[in-house]
Design brief:
Order of helices and strands: HEHEEEEEEEEEEEHEEHEEEEEEEEE
Strand content: over 45%
Radius of gyration: 22 Å
Shape: globular
Distance between the termini: 26 Å
Structural class: mainly beta
């Protein structure tokens, strides 16, 4: 593996700074991971929900976590093709137990009920792409029996051959949870918007002044363009209504959830019917196992144009759609380059076998077209709580591959 001089300098400086912080921190964790991959590419569950990493034959990752009384630090970087890259890395400053400011590269602060490890992927922000540079503020408030979580964030997309100046991200959410006896009910609304930037096309520079941000915040219309019958919302908007119901039954916890996706006001009012992600998750506390079943549908997005004519991850100005550095930001089964209706069944499971072994299983299939079952079956073994060895079997349409990995907890 060959390193560029600039990357070696950055890596050395990063390790020096972190080492100093570790000596001063109250709680610290250091972990090193090494993974080998099949030489043949195009294995679905290697390339998808893999933190934006496109695997080659060898991969190594370093993970540092520090915790102080009022702040959390995380630095996660990996080595790939002779270069060092930052993955999810941030500083989280805690004003109180429920209020904090986070800045750096990170995924999301919403949908705490959601199991990213074995799901097919959150509809707005999953672990499919690299984390985006963001700064966000999150807080919560309890009013009688209802607990409210809310937050707002601002981020930046990537500069590439299409975006001369990278577009901006606006993100906000609010959700309410009510817990009574063994039941928990939750409802939430999440809004994402892609705006500003300069496009390498006739669309050119997009509006990005503060007055334009105010329009983005409330999804207000932009100017009426020549040839259009009405003005469209400024920027590219995407949202999710989310609902979940949780019930504790003895040694088990059962959770039902639905993420209803929308791209305009018709979807906001559920005119796109059943589109979205439906799921049930069953946790067994005694056997320490979890089973998750999901159904994803996007077949109603264009059922009644122009009223219901939504393109969830696509946009006529931002041609790369809801993606970051070439990967979907949301669920990997939805195409960000063109509108392709899908119906996907997904099964995820994880659990413990004995005291030293644990497993993870992922199986998915698109059932509205001819498709193969995409699977990944992984088995891990712990050795003295410091070393973890894993082996996984996975497939693409014509091949079966095997991966091997080691993980050391250094501190």
């Amino acid at each position: 593996m060959k390193f560029h001089t600039n990357n070696v300098f950055k890596l050395s400086l990063l390790i020096t700074v972190l080492s100093t912080q570790f000596l001063l921190s109250q709680t610290r964790k250091i972990e090193l991971k090494v993974q080998s991959y099949p030489e043949i590419a195009d294995f679905w569950w290697l390339e998808k929900n893999n933190y934006g990493i496109m695997p080659n034959s060898f991969f190594s990752e370093f993970n540092f976590k520090l915790k102080k009384s009022n702040a959390d630090y995380k630095v996660d970087f990996y080595l790939h093709d002779g270069n060092a890259y930052l993955s999810e890395s941030f500083i989280k400053y805690n004003f109180t137990d429920n209020t904090f400011l986070r800045f750096g590269k990170y995924y999301k602060d919403f949908s705490k009920y959601f199991n990213d490890d074995i799901s097919s992927g959150h509809l707005l922000v999953s672990n499919n792409a690299k984390p985006m540079k963001k700064i966000g503020f999150v807080s919560s408030k309890k009013i009688r029996k209802a607990h409210f979580d809310f937050g707002i964030a601002h981020g930046v997309f990537d500069k590439n051959n299409l975006y001369i100046k990278p577009p901006l991200l606006h993100e906000k959410f609010i959700n309410m949870n009510i817990k009574k006896n063994d039941y928990t009910i939750g409802i939430g609304l999440i809004h994402e918007a892609m705006w500003g930037g300069t496009i390498d096309s006739e669309d050119g520079q997009q509006q990005s002044k503060f007055k334009d941000f105010l329009k983005i915040f409330i999804s207000a219309d932009g100017p009426l363009l020549e040839g259009d019958s009405h003005a469209n919302s400024l920027g590219n908007h995407l949202g999710v209504w989310e609902f979940f119901l949780e019930k504790r039954i003895g040694i088990k916890n059962i959770r039902f959830y639905h993420q209803h996706i929308f791209e305009d006001t018709s979807g906001l009012r559920f005119a796109n019917k059943f589109d979205g992600l439906w799921g049930v998750e069953i946790e067994n506390f005694l056997s320490k196992s979890t089973l998750l079943l999901e159904y994803l549908e996007t077949t109603y997005q264009n059922i009644d144009p122009p009223y219901v004519d939504e393109a969830y991850y696509n946009h006529w100005i931002y041609d790369y759609g809801w993606s970051y550095k070439g990967q979907n930001i949301g669920n990997p089964f939805i195409n960000s380059l063109e509108v392709v209706p899908i119906q996907v069944f997904h099964i995820g499971s994880e659990g413990v076998i004995g005291s030293n072994y644990y497993y993870k299983i992922m199986l998915s299939k698109n059932v509205n077209k001819h498709d193969y079952i995409k699977y990944k079956i992984q088995l891990n073994k712990k050795i003295k709580n410091t070393l973890d060895i894993n082996v996984a079997v996975l497939n693409n349409q014509n091949n079966v591959g095997i991966t091997f990995g080691l993980s050391w907890k250094l501190k």
